[in-house]
Amino acid sequence: MRLDVPSDLGMVGDAVELVATHLPPGTLSPRRISFNLRTALAEALGNAIRYGNGEDPDRMVRVYVELRRDFVRIHIDDDGQGFDSSRLPDPTHPDNLEREYGRGLFVIRHLVDDVAFNEKGNGICLTLRAG
Amino acid sequence: MRFTLKKDKSGVVIVGVEGQLIVGNRQELKQKVLEALEEGSRKFVIDFSKTGYIDSSGLGVLVSLSKKIREQGGELRLAGLNADLQTLFELTKLDTLFAITGTAEEALAAF
Q1: Neighbour count for residue B64 (Cβ, 10 Å)
Q2: Fewer C-beta within 10 Å: chain A N or C terminus?
């Protein structure tokens, strides 16, 4: 499954529903699709649109979903310069708790089984194992 | 996805979040609550009993609203989180920041 999403934050919800509702049943439980996949995909898309593509209407975010018997893997790529995911502050630290931003990657890491970035840092790959 | 807004007889504003609270619609929630705050409302309950999922932008807007409401001498309570949403608040430690009840009725009774 491939999807090109315009860099408009208002499109995130529809894009997430398109992916979630077109996943064939079996690999992921309904609960994991309903919550883990939807939330993680919304996060990743939102980051790609806002931080990667700067909400530039001329840029697209490319989504590619790999379906296997043992896992679902979602690749999300933007046209940005990339970023270093290792330099993010801990959003659960008391000093950061009242910040409005900074939780996205933390949430993703806790909802999916594996997170990987491409070398440039403008592509993220989310893996949810079967179950 | 949509937001519903009503006031109970004691003036508490109850906002219902139907669907999801994410990056694409968080500004709408923020606007609705801030408008009610400007009109003089000080007690708020956000009811998530019909909410499927919340992303970090949604969590962020709740943090921002909580701060603004408190600055005006008001109070915000969250209600109706399902098990997954409750887990989300716990892992981000936002359960320590918000008053969370099982139902909107319990939140209203707590004011």
Answers
A1: 18
A2: C
Q: How many domains does chain A have?
A: 1
Residue A117, chain B, CB below 8 Å: the answer is no
Chain B residue closest to A101 (CA)? B60
Q: Which residues of A touch B60 (CB under 8 A)?
A: 99-101, 103
**pLDDT tens digit sequence for B84-99:** 999 999 999 999 999 9
Residues in chain A: 131
CATH topology of domain B2-110: Transcription Regulator spoIIAA (3.30.750)
Is this complex scored with an ipTM above 0.85?
yes
pTM of the model: 0.92
CA-CA distance, A110 to A42, in Å (whole number)?
Answer: 14
